[in-house]
């Protein structure tokens, strides 16, 4: 099993993160909603990451041997409940990395006082639904995000 690191996002990671996102852009857009056009500019991404890091948001990179292979974020914390998001690069999909990353993020969120995580998955993203189910999330319904139809999932971390 590869040594997967859940590393807090830092401003020093921006060039590598930008390269990772550009390399996987088409792959990601098949499975999650597209990033805004402004995201695809290194200066803009640097500003976004600076704001996220300064705000203390739970943004993490997944690294193997120091190389970025994915991301996982715990955002929109309100009343102990937060939103979980993740993406794994195409070259590393299907290897169990997303399942391990979600488990690591759940523990990190719990350690920081989050008691429940929710996630939204595009209706046709079967692999992501399976990752969430393996990590103990249960399906709670459907929602629309912008013009994207999604299923919603939830895991109560304080019940483990």
Brief description of this entry?
This protein has 160 residues and is an alpha+beta fold. It has helices spanning 14-29, 42-54, 97-111, 126-134; strands at residues 4-8, 58-64, 67-78, 81-88, 116-122, 138-145, 148-156.
Write the layout of secondary structure elements.
Elements: E1 4-8, H1 14-29, H2 42-54, E2 58-64, E3 67-78, E4 81-88, H3 97-111, E5 116-122, H4 126-134, E6 138-145, E7 148-156
Parallel strand pairs: 4-5
Antiparallel strand pairs: 1-2, 2-3, 3-4, 5-7, 6-7
Decide which structural class fits the backbone. Answer: alpha+beta
Percentage beta strand: 35-45%
Poorly predicted segments:
none
Tell me the series of helices and strands, N- to C-terminal: EHHEEEHEHEE
Total beta strand runs: 7
Radius of gyration, taken over Cα atoms and rounded to an integer in Å: 15 Å
How far apart lie the N and C ends?
Answer: 25 Å
Describe the model.
The chain is α+β, with helices and mostly antiparallel strands. It has helices at residues 14-29, 42-54, 97-111, 126-134, and strands at residues 4-8, 58-64, 67-78, 81-88, 116-122, 138-145, 148-156. A seven-stranded mixed β-sheet has the order 1-2-3-4-5-7-6, sandwiched between helices.
Keywords, separated by commas or semicolons:
globular, 160 residues, 4 helices, 35% strand, alpha+beta
């Amino acid at each position: 099993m590869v040594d997967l690191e859940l590393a807090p996002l830092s401003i020093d990671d921006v060039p590598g993160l930008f390269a990772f996102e550009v390399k996987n852009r088409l792959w990601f857009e098949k499975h999650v909603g597209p990033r805004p056009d402004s995201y695809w500019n290194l200066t803009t991404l640097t500003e976004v990451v600076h704001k996220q890091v300064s705000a203390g948001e739970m943004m993490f990179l997944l690294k193997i041997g120091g190389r970025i292979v994915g991301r996982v974020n715990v955002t929109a914390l309100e009343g102990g409940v937060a939103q979980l998001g993740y993406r794994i690069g195409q070259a590393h999909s299907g290897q169990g990395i997303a399942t391990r990353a979600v488990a690591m993020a759940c523990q990190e969120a719990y350690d920081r006082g989050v008691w429940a995580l929710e996630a939204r998955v595009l209706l046709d993203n079967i692999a992501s639904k399976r990752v969430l189910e393996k990590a103990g999330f249960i399906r709670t319904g459907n929602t629309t995000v912008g013009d994207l139809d999604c299923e919603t999932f939830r895991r109560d971390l304080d019940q483990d």
